[in-house]
Amino acid sequence: MAEYDYDVLVIGAGPGGYVAAIRAAQLGLKTACAEGRATLGGTCLNVGCIPSKALLHGSELFHEAAGGTMAKFGVKTSGVELDLDVLQAEKATTVKELTGGIEFLFKKNKVTWLKGLATFADAHTVEVAGAKVSAKHIVIATGSSVTPLPGVAVDNDAGVIVDSTGALALGKVPGHLAVIGGGVIGLELGSVWGRLGAKVTVIEYLDQLLPGMDGDVRKEAARIFKKQGFDLKLSTKVTGASVKDGKATLTLEPAAGGAAETLEADVVLVAIGRRPHTDGLGLDTIGLAVNARGQIETDHDFRTAVDGVWAIGDVIPGPMLAHKAEDEGIAVAENIAGLTGIVNHAVIPGVVYTNPEIAGVGLTEEAAKALGDIKVGKFPMLANSRAKTNREPEGFVKVIADAKTDRVLGVWAIASVAGTMIAEAALAMEFGATSEDIAYTCHAHPTHSEAIKEAAMAVTGKPIHI
User: Fold this and answer.
1) Contact between 247 and 161 (Cβ < 8 Å)
2) Radius of gyration of the chain from Cα atoms?
3) What's the start-to-end Cα distance of the chain, in Å?
């Protein structure tokens, strides 16, 4: 009789969890995955990455048809209308298709889906839906949840003060949307509703948008969003909120202190970040503590301080990104199977899916300078033939390289397809490329990616088209 019910039990079926479960099963391990949602895929597929991209794409199509650059190419439109119900239904269809796809993959790979929330009974046993299940290895992959803002109570059902989940499900376009937080989620969802007709005000505590990104990118992003009609209230904090007659009133103050003011909005989106989701796991039962940021610490193989318990994704230190969690899911399964699973956390790309897109990988110029001498090359998208032809002039590419070795330390881009372009930079950095390696690699013409080549050429002062 087997000592355990399963070789591997994964708690959470988000991008990290479901990938870990599938990979473990592929490696011949008897695997189960506990998930409390009615569908698989976690926040990302259900109320995060995927539905937001559906709304972003739909809003871009509407914006183009209603008065974007189409007229410059002879495409004349009139009487363009938005059917928000149809857009929301298309979003729901996409989510259903992708979450259903994961369920198919579970069946294909013989991963058992334990339906319910899992709580530790001991280091090798969890309780799910009233039943105890044991495993030799348990992987915590419970992701993250919305960070609350004191004094601003979220009520998604009422639809006035909402979090990202509520902002994805609005039944009508708000006249005025106030976004608390100038990070990725706030700017993406602000872009959706702004393109569909809302006035958008972004309130950010810091003096710039997009914390953690390269300084030039942050400045250029602010300029672009202002041009798109966003009202940016930087260095500003929200100290309170009230709702009356279907509208919200926010109390604002300068971040450094000063006189208060009020701002009225039809909808307020609270998007100040996310925090590790470990509530209800019973970590204290197995003696596993979290750090000051609520994260579970692991070694480089993703082992926790408790033997047999592993952790990946948003619950451990590092960027809270679906693709980072996926790579860790593969790595942890391979480590459990006795192989060597590695994730290079120095090369994790990040993308903001606004229009234009904003992307980066590696070190910012500020961080690179702090480590030593560097060389920097920049190339404007205005000088890129494909971007110019498509009438997409905004943005640039920046390549940061070590002054002595020429090894690429970071790449940052603002361009209509920056999220796709950044993959080349990540691959180059993974192979330890120099700026010269990129500069002397032939790129297809005309493509947006030629801007990466030219920025790499600019590192040594020899771009062609500027």
Assistant:
1) no
2) 23
3) 72
Six-digit token pair at 341? 């699973």
CATH architecture for the domain at 6-146+275-336: 3-Layer(bba) Sandwich (3.50)
Q: From the candidates 63, 345, 445, 465, which is the catalytic residue?
A: 445
Report pLDDT digits (tens) over 186-235. Answer: 999 999 999 999 999 999 999 999 999 999 999 999 999 999 999 999 99
Q: Is there a cis peptide before residue 446, judged by omega within 30 degrees of 0?
A: yes
The per-residue pLDDT for range 398-452, each reduced to its tens digit, is 999 999 999 999 999 999 999 999 999 999 999 999 999 999 999 999 999 999 9
Question: 86: which 2 tokens?
Answer: 């149809």
Supply the DSSP symbol for 295.
P
- Domain borders along the chain are 6-146+275-336, 161-272, 350-459
Active site residue 445: yes
Going by C-beta distance under 8 Å and a sequence separation of 6 or more, which residues neighbour residue 323?
15, 348, 349
Give the rounded distance of the alpha carbon of 133 from its chain centre.
33
- For all residues of the chain together, what is the average pLDDT? 97
pLDDT of the residue at 357: 98
Tokens encoding 342: 């590695």
Task: Find the helix packing angle between 49-67 and 84-108, rounded to 10°.
Answer: 150
- The dihedral of CA 154, 39, 352, 293: what is its sign? positive
Report the C-alpha gap between 264 and 174 in whole angstroms: 12
Give phi and psi for 406, each to the nearest 5.
70, 5
Residue 372 structure tokens: 């030593």
CATH 3.50.50.60 applies to domain 161-272: yes
Q: Give the C-alpha separation, 201 to 179, whole Å.
A: 6
